[in-house]
């Protein structure tokens, strides 16, 4: 139920997760987002199984080469195996000379959230993260991000080992005005 929607705790996600076929269905749903001029300015990269360890090793390698403390390197190595499935959503704007990149990036954000909602609707828990790799030039190279692209998020999908406690939400009074 959307009124009670909440994200999973990234540290309390585990197996099982969607099968490749189930994930394909979720990705089809995720793509049904508002998209000005139908540019489809986003793409997905799926990390499942051992691929999660391989990308974790690449991320750890980046930090290690920078002399980061060992616990940080170890955390990076494990960062993609917290959930059974991780989907990277890449904002990939199309230069058609008239559609603002901002609009296209918003559409990519909508894809991230739609994927999360689709996963929830199918009974999976999930969370939308960026963390440092989304903003790191070296990570971008290892993740195959093009010069005009940006990482909109990593949506981690699986099963929650514990319920996330409810958190305080903004009130309508704080956020809504009515045009007089
Ligand atoms: C673009 C974006 C990036 C986020 N990145 C992180 C992150 O790197 N780490 C994190 O703990 N939460 C991150 N969050 C927040 C979680 O997705 C989530 O919203 C938060 O844990 C609160 O849970 P809720 O969705 O139930 O309100 C991000 C949210 C957004 C929209």
Structural class: alpha+beta
Could you give the count of β-strands?
5
CATH homolog superfamily: NADH Oxidase
Bound molecules: flavin mononucleotide
What ranges have pLDDT less than 50 throughout 5 or more consecutive residues? none
Shape-level CATH architecture: 3-Layer(aba) Sandwich
The share of residues in helices is: 25-40%
Gap between N and C termini, in Å?
33 Å
Query: What is the CATH class?
Result: Alpha Beta
Please tell me what the overall shape is. globular
Counted up, domains total 1
CATH topology: NADH Oxidase
Q: Mind summarizing the main beta sheet?
A: 5 strands, antiparallel
Total DSSP helices: 6
Q: Could you report the average pLDDT, rounded to the nearest whole number?
A: 98
* Radius of gyration over C-alpha positions, nearest whole angstrom: 17 Å
Order of helices and strands: EHEHHEHEHEH
Q: What percentage of the residues does DSSP assign to strands (E)?
A: 15-25%
Structural account:
- 31% of the residues are buried.
- With 180 residues, the protein is α+β, with helices and mostly antiparallel strands.
- Strands 1, 2, 3, 4 and 5 form a five-stranded antiparallel β-sheet that branches.
- Helix 1 crosses helix 4 and helix 2 runs antiparallel to helix 3.
- It has a single domain, classed as NADH Oxidase.
- The chain binds flavin mononucleotide.
- The site of flavin mononucleotide has 9 residues, from strand 4.
């Amino acid at each position: 139920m959307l009124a009670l929607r909440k994200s999973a705790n990234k540290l309390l996600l585990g197996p099982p997760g969607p099968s490749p076929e189930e994930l394909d269905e979720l990705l089809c749903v995720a793509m049904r987002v508002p998209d000005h001029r139908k540019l489809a300015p986003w793409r997905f990269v799926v990390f499942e199984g051992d691929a999660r360890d391989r990308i974790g090793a690449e991320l750890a390698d980046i930090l290690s080469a920078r002399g980061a403390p060992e616990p940080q390197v170890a955390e990076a190595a494990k960062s993609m195996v917290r959930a059974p499935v991780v989907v990277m959503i890449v904002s990939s704007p199309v230069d058609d000379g008239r559609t603002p990149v901002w609009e296209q990036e918003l559409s990519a954000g909508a894809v991230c959230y739609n994927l999360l909602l689709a996963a929830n609707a199918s009974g999976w828990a999930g969370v939308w993260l960026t963390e440092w790799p989304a903003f790191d030039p070296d990570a971008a190279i290892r993740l195959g991000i093009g010069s005009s692209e940006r990482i909109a998020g990593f949506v981690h999908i699986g099963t929650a080992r514990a319920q996330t406690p409810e958190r305080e939400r903004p009130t309508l009074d704080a956020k809504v005005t009515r045009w007089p």
